[in-house]
Amino acid sequence: MSGQxxxxxxxxxxxxxTGIAVAVAVGLGxxxxxxxxxxxxxxxxxxMVVAAVGLGGVALRALLxxxxxxxxxxxxxxxxxxxxxxxxxxxxxxLVVLTVVFTPERGWAGVLPTLGSxxxxxxxxxxxxxxxxxxxxxxxxxxxxxALTTVFVALIALAVDxxxxxxxxxxxxxxxxxxxxxxxxxxxxxxxALISFAAPAAGFAVxxxxxxxxRLVGDARGGSGSPMGTGTLPALRTGVVALVAxxxxxxxxxxxxxxxxxxxxxxxxxxxxxxxxxxxxxEMAGQLTLPEPIDLLQVDASVADPGYLRSVSLDExxxxxxxRMSNLDGQESIAGDRPLAPLPDPRSSRAVTxxxxxxxxxxxxxxxxxxxxxVQVLGSEDEDWRFDPAARTVFGRDVTTGGxxxxxxxxxxxxxxxxxxxxxxxxxxPLVERYTALPELDPAVTALADQLTDPAQSPYERVRxxxxxxxxxxxxxxxxxxxxQGTTGDDLADFLRxxxxxxxxxxxxxxxLVRAAGVPARVVLGYTxxxxxxxxxxxxxxxxxxxxxxxxxxxxxxxPFDPTPIAADRAxxxxxxxxxxxxxxxxxxxxxxxxxxxxxxxxxxxxxxDDQYVPPLAPQAVPQQQLRPWLLGAAGTLxxxxxxxxxxxxxxxxxxxxxxxxRPGALWDELLATTADLGVxxxxxxxxxxxxxxxxxxxxxxxxxxxxxxxxxxxxxERSVYGPPAGRPGxxxxxxxxxxxxxxxxxxxxxxxxxxxxxxxxxxxxxxxxRWTAARAPRRxxxx
Amino acid sequence: MSxxxxxxxxxxxxxxxxxxxxAPRHDTGQDAAATQPETDVDVAAEGAQLxxxxxxxxxxxxxxxxxxxxxxxxxxxxxxxxxxxxxxxTLAKALARTIDGTVRRIxxxxxxxxxxxxxxxxxxxESRAFEFKPGAVFANVVVADEINRASPKTQSALxxxxxxxxxxxxxxxxxxxxxxxxVATQNPLEMEGTxxxxxxxxxxxxxxxxxxxPDRDAELAMLGGRATVDPLTALTPVVxxxxxxxxxxxxxxxxxxxxxRQYVVSLVEATRRSPDLRLGASPRAGLQLLRAARATxxxxxRDHVLPDDVQAMAVxxxxxxLLLTPDAxxxxxxxxxxxxxxxxxxxxxGGR
Lengths: 784, 352
Fold this sequence. Notes:
By secondary structure, chain A is α+β, with helices and mostly antiparallel strands.
């Protein structure tokens, strides 16, 4: 028995291989953060702490083992507490690295942390927290942020090291790498770089390889040759499976996150539009709002009241998803002399020319006055800019407006009320068909449209009637930065009933009602013309982002209508749609939608809503809502906990199933699983007898009654596998009883830690998976 | 017939030749197995009797005795390899003595001819015809002493008989007796004028065993007992040849489960993959390993074979067939060690 006692302290020995594998794996996993930063200066301190944790752990454990060995045959009393000291030593090493890198001037000899240097470090970390709030990705690697990142990675390295080496569950260390991978996924805007995915995956493969290797080395009793390469294939295989699963699962997650929260009417879309993939990151960006408006455009127009600057029109309405943009036709470039979008009747129009200098606007769509005839983009190839005649939108092909200037001429429609009223309805016109298409509406909405309009009315009268609903103060519509939470489940019906919202809801609702009344309509996103600056030019800021409605009249074309009660100084006077409610209210329209109504990503991140024309790199961007990260964090924690509980649940089910089975094979499997859970090392190459003998020796001292029980189980197992079919034993209650006895004895002979580990992280479930892959790994005959 | 000592007082050689003369192609073994009713033979009890009897002569070596019995019941041949004077020949003789069958002993020398082993046709003046004079292999137990002293030609004549269990002389095939077991002894020391069995030839032997020096008590007892009377002379047969055939048939009926066959194949395959080995085990090795395991299980009184039986037999059955790579040989590894290591790496199918 003394030999077994001697084994116990050695149980901490995962060998230096596992410790080094942990360092390599976490180092690879940390590479996932690469896209988060704008420069690579963060890499050195992170590598240093990872090395400190991994190699420090290896060194400390080797030292400890040597001390225990030199203490003689028996395990000294201090061996247990000393093992606990290893992580503390690793923490100390991390602190030393942090001191050297970040606060050498306050540290003792520039190396050892002192109270002062620790206080400095805490200050740095505080700075880092602030920098996280202030910066968008890719972030500048400012000192505080790097310090925070370093501490974060160090904690992960510590956790992975603890899991892999003392707990001997390297595969579970993959959770740490998962956390690292989550960072770029949840912060980077747009698609996540390949390295964020590939590096942690490679790290995970390294961990699995270490796991496999540890298992094989543990099994071979001084076996021939080194089994270094043996586990590589299963490890690679598992890594690939994990990678594929990792690719597939996130494809479904955003639906969960967004489906139930989508409350806005405005441009929602799932990957339609111009092909930006659905991306949870874009949604995060939607939460960035601006305490101070940002100057976007400088407009020098030939007229004093240039009217709305149109960016893009949303022409498809789906009940749940709101308004969105259909695919743009990119065939036509803006080069050439042909007028882009001439009005059908140029008599009732006025010509406008304008020159726009882009300040901080950065978007694919050129904000233009309606209706553009010619556009010249300065500093960019004409071929890069395309014109979609249906949407009357000029958009960049792989280019954005950032830093450009452009000139354009436009023909602004100025029809008289009489002309509009005279415009007939042309049923059967494909354009009318297209722009009056609606999904099935809430009955309340249809009823409202019927109530407001009359088929006998001219289209113009119908549009005015619908407009009146929103602009007549008697109807009680009021501007609000957020929609009120409704109960009907239909966002449109809720808005029409609760009458609170911003331009997006107004424009969306009006366009639906106009369509319901049979008149072609669409929602337009763009800007109000901004304020006149000192030099006479108009400056358009983020506060000017707006949404309105265009209705189509035969022979006249698309005419804008604005149902939103916006501030008088922003409003554009539309003679055919006079406002009766022009409020003198300087509440900026843009502002911030409430987080309670987060909007799904639109065809393009920037086009999501009228108030979202936010330059993605705006350094002043500050997350307005602090609650969301917490919620995300809590959800992430829950997911991790749920994942961690999976082995436990699987194991419980397995045990119940085996006990219910009652056959010797099942019971024997259960016995072996129990030993594996408790960390009892039993070689996989032993026969049932040998295993039983080993167990009996282990249990003889503490629980002599368990010895015959083990024997019974082993003999029954043996006979059931190798015996003649006639004599094979079936389910037998005495066997189940024997198993209970042995299990109890095993638990009694184990330490509390082992019991807890067996319950929480049953190693057998993981080992089963590993064996499953190992058993199916192809064996190549080696040439003799 | 130099080098062949006819069975003297203790060996009844004449009976064997009589049988042969009357029925040269008489296939006693298979007929006996076929006609033998399926009675329950207590292999374990009879094996214990045999072991006890041999154990009286070969003292302090129960494992070696047991292995010899296993080889007998597995219808195999045994190679005893050890230094002179540790009782190789005594074991062989004792084994032969306990079986009430024919026993021949061939002392191998460099001038021994193949015909001395197999037999020769001589011209009979009276009948004016060639008559076959059977060689030394026509017996139930053939003790081939110091097999490495004979020329390779003679060695291979014996080895062929061992495998085929028949002798062909002048186009006539003579079936050998059943049971037929060759117990060969070999001196491992490099000596002049020896022709060590090539490894490939050793494949014919089911198992190789080393006697090893007896422990102190056994040696003391031996000194005491041998001084007065040779225990071999006191040995009386326990079973006859026919009954041995019954026992062998009973062993052959033992149940071998599918996982066990897989385990044997895995083990044999593992020797072929081992980086330490130039030559792994042959399919015949696998067959003989399973036979030996069967006999082991039968001697233990079980009606089925366990991986434990295979593991117990793996070293004696496999080790002498394997060729180490020069690297492994330089590293002073030996075949026994390689097999032991393989046992520790090949998972037991179904057992775990």
